[in-house]
């Protein structure tokens, strides 16, 4: 049994099998997109639905093989649990009380994240940036709030539509930060207060460029750290492999020496 499990594990972890699953995921993604068209569904005469269920069947078989191959380790891996969750949702009958959850079957496309190693690294790096992103996000909220209070007090009487109260000011400042027709928001104020352009330029520079660059810097740092960790793991695997080879050579050398000793003792 352990030998069979090792063979199955080597099979499901092999590159050809992984590429096959990636291909099935892409086919399933195309099918999910085509199923949104009633005209195509009617013209397909049911073969699109059949193809979709075939891909789901392949996913079920794949998960069964992985559970058998990895045993309890399968349930300790977050990506494996995500794959299991996505496939279980696909098996929920549309007529059941939880049929609305079948809308989440589009998440099967996200299986590419678990199937492609480079995507897993990116997601892991993004998860690692959450603490830093939260701090920068809090800084951005403080900046927008302070600017909102200031703009309400200074520009509220001039442009009540955009700065008449704090909620309107916050919404207008968010629009300015995103660059969505920001000139239309600032024009009534700058026409009345020529110096207002300095306030808005400082706000745009601080909120859009400085804070955005901070987000990018945190993300890049996390990606670099993830790359270093991956490189370290590869080096450790190579060193472990070299150690096994050296041990095997040492054992072979001892066996050859013992054979020579036995031959030399024979008359």
Gist?
By secondary structure, the chain is mainly α. 81% of the residues lie in helices and 0% in strands.
User: What characteristic shape results from the CA principal axes?
Assistant: elongated
Residue share in helices? over 70%
What is the CATH class designation of the largest domain? Mainly Alpha
Order of helices and strands: HHHHHHHHHHHH
Spatial gap, N to C terminus: 46 Å
Quaternary arrangement of the chains shown? single chain
Report the total helices: 12
Radius of gyration: 30 Å
Q: Catalogue the unreliable spans.
A: none
Question: Which structural class best describes the helix and strand composition?
Answer: mainly alpha
Classify the fold: give the CATH topology of the largest domain. Helix Hairpins
Number of strands: 0
The count of domains is: 2
Mean pLDDT: 78
Largest sheet: none
The CATH level-2 architecture of the largest domain is identified as Orthogonal Bundle
The share of residues in extended strands comes to: under 5%
Task: Explain this structure.
This protein is an all-alpha fold. The protein has two domains: 114 residues, Four Helix Bundle (Hemerythrin (Met), subunit A); 116 residues, Helix Hairpins. Helices cover 81% and strands 0% of the residues. The chain is built from twelve helices and no strands. The protein is elongated. The mean pLDDT is 78.
């Amino acid at each position: 049994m352990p030998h069979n499990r090792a063979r199955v594990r080597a099979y499901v972890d092999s590159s050809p099998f992984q590429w096959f699953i990636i291909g099935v995921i892409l086919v399933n993604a195309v099918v999910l997109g085509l199923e949104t068209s009633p005209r195509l569904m009617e013209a397909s005469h049911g073969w699109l639905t059949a193809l979709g269920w075939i891909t789901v069947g392949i996913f079920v078989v794949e998960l069964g093989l992985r559970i058998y191959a990895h045993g309890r380790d399968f349930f300790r891996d977050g990506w494996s649990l995500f794959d299991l969750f996505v496939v279980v949702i696909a098996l929920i009958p549309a007529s059941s009380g939880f049929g609305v959850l079948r809308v989440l079957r589009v998440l099967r496309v996200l299986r590419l994240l678990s199937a492609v190693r480079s995507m897993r690294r990116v997601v892991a790096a993004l998860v690692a940036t959450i603490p830093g992103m939260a701090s920068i996000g809090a800084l951005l909220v403080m900046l927008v709030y302070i600017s909102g209070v200031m703009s309400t007090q200074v520009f509220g009487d001039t442009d009540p539509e955009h700065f008449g109260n704090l909620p309107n000011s916050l919404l207008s400042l968010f629009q300015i930060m995103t660059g969505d027709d920001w000139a239309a928001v600032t024009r009534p104020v700058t026409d009345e207060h020529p110096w207002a352009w300095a306030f808005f330029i400082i706000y745009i520079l601080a909120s859009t460029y400085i804070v955005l660059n901070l987000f990018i810097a945190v993300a890049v740092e996390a990606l670099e750290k993830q790359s270093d960790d991956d490189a370290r793991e590869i080096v450790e695997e190579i060193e472990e492999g070299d150690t096994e080879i050296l041990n095997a050579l040492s054992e072979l050398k001892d066996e050859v020496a013992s054979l020579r000793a036995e031959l030399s003792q024979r008359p």
